[in-house]
Design brief:
The chain has 226 residues and is α/β, with parallel strands linked by helices. The protein has 6 helices and 7 strands, in the order H-H-E-H-E-H-E-E-H-E-H-E-E.
Length: 226
């Protein structure tokens, strides 16, 4: 059982996570030209807080995560709300980068700093977007490592905007915009410290589109294969 599997059942009880998802969702609504019939992928969805805040904006949302525990909680929430257009999917793009649909929008919240291979993941996202589609990433500004604390490995200490923009441009994204949208506060060595969170919005531009990925049959919202 992973760290996120263990925390899944209590994930939604944190009011900071709820407020953070609400604020990021509202900013996405303000920044994107959303219209009827659009489809979305949330990568690193957890229990789906961000997608639930956006569920009325899309005709279909695929919610992907590597944590089965998170997806189990998510599936129960979808069933309870009777939402037939939200599809949980157990997926690690590092091992299965292509076999799902293409989307109009891909978004993530506090996921990318857990992914060391940033460049390849941005290329995966590019291939999974329709030309002209949008990528929205909300994550930590560059920090000194105190957000996770000592001993935590395999994470980025936030993102430097200039370097991140260069990586996005290399992956054939354009119209890149960063906006600070939220602040998280944590006690670090007895002192309150503020960690800003940005929302990056970029658009799929020409190049590296590849062939349309093979469509993987998704489980129904109420059934997730073990």
């Amino acid at each position: 059982m992973t760290y996120f599997d263990e925390r899944a059942k209590e994930w939604d009880s944190d009011p900071v996570k709820l407020e953070r998802a609400k604020v990021v969702a509202q900013t996405i609504r303000e920044r994107l030209p959303l219209k009827n019939g659009m489809t979305a992928l949330e990568y690193g969805c957890g229990t789906g807080l961000l997608s639930f805040a956006l569920q009325d904006a899309f005709a279909s949302i695929t919610l992907a995560d590597t944590s089965q525990g998170m997806l189990d909680v998510l599936a129960k929430k979808i069933q309870r709300e009777g939402l037939g257009h939200m599809y949980p999917l157990l997926l690690d793009l590092a091992s299965a980068p292509s076999p799902i649909d293409r989307f109009d929008v891909i978004y993530s919240l506090m996921t990318m700093h857990h992914i060391l291979d940033t460049e390849n993941y941005l290329n995966y996202f590019h291939k999974l977007l329709y030309p002209g589609g949008f990528l929205c990433i909300a994550d930590l500004e560059k920090e000194d490592g105190s957000f996770h604390g000592q001993g935590v490995k395999d994470v980025h200490n936030g993102f430097d905007r200039v370097k991140f923009q260069s990586q996005l441009e290399s992956a054939q994204f354009g119209d890149i915009q960063f906006t600070q949208v939220f602040e998280m506060k944590r006690l670090v060595e007895g002192q309150e410290k503020v960690f800003p969170i940005f929302l990056m919005v970029a658009r799929h531009i020409s190049g590296n589109t590849g062939n349309k990925p093979t469509i993987l049959k998704r489980d129904s919202p109420h059934e997730i294969k073990k």
